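Bench log. Compound arrived from synthesis this morning; before running ITC I wanted a structural hypothesis for how pyridoxal-5'-phosphate sits in the protein. Inputs:
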Amino acid sequence: MSITSFLPPVRTLMGPGPSDVHPRISSAMARPTIGHLDPLFVGMMDEVKSLLQYAFQTKNELTIPVSAPGSAGMETCFMNLVEAGDKVVVCQNGVFGGRMKENVERLGATAIMVEDEWGKAVDCNKVEEALKANPDTKILAFVHAETSTGAVSDAKTLCEIARKHDCLTIVDAVTSLGGSELRVDDWGIDAIYSGTQKCLSCTPGISPVSFSKKATDVITSRKTKVNSWFLDMNLVMGYWGANTKRAYHHTAPVNALYALHESLVMLQDEGLENSWARHAKNHQALRAGLEAMGLSFIVDEADRLAQLNSVTIPDGVDEAAVRGQLLNEFNLEIGAGLGALAGKVWRIGLMGHSSRAENIILCLSALEAVLGDAVKQGVAVAAAQEILGA
Ligand SMILES: *Cc1c(COP(=O)(O)O)cnc(C)c1O
């Protein structure tokens, strides 16, 4: 057998994640591996925590990266805060709310579902009704940015409602962190998880999480042990915690954390609010181009995510063949529809380093070339340029 090195092509990643990794971040990842208990590495871990506090806009002490992808961040929040017999109100308006339900039920707790149509934001009134009808609810869980549809929900109001009903909140911010306004302390979020491969433009495989003081107290005073050894924050705190002598828990993914550190330094240097503004502007440019071409968005304008654009497929077009052609002829990846929207939409991501002018122009021209007569020709790039140049 003689298998040779794997040499992936350079693609432009405009799907639902991973997004384009900035060369500064991939080169950080190639730096020499040192021991995870090396004092220099421990110093870098502390910087990662501070940088994450900035990204989340929080002073929460328990703000750390979980050594596994976004789904593990989700499990970390549910495993640590939910105990058997608890009641959790779960909002579902796409794929990821369904995974929250799975988490709750596997823990022997009850999920009260508040469902909204795919492509709509979570309806705050329905959430209020559900909490009124279930006054013994412990936690409200919702997805801030639904990557499966491209809809953003009003996290600030949802957290206000939860507080009024004396509930903790678990918020999925995998796609919102770095790309949409998100203020953990101001909005009073208790537990939040994200991912590195969306608007942070880092390599996949790490999940930043943060827990408020109230949530941390719930975790440290549980009646039962957390059902996972690896994700038990009571143990992980000894590895990442403040004012503790670092004790071995697991081996941190050393090089992946160099990459996360670099991506967070880049976010700090750009400025969080500038990053939100860049995502918003580039979304408007892509939108202008797509609409000029004749494509339309499935999410109402007020609830649209800048970093994930779901557009309808023109009649008679083979959506999978188009994605294949974009990939093979233009090295461009866009996303397919997921769940209820499979076969009905394309999902075009403008996340992190992927959210830039050259990607927008490439995407519009490549789509125009591949779609031919199915769309209006020769107008998309100019429409986008008008906004990019402004
Ligand atoms: C991508 C994503 C996840 C899962 O993250 P992985 O890193 O793929 O495990 C969870 N929630 C949302 C909203 C996502 O977009």
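What the model suggests: The mean pLDDT is 97. Residues 17, 69-71, 96, 143, 147, 172, 174-175, 195, 204 surround pyridoxal-5'-phosphate (CB under 6 Å).
ITC booked for Thursday regardless.
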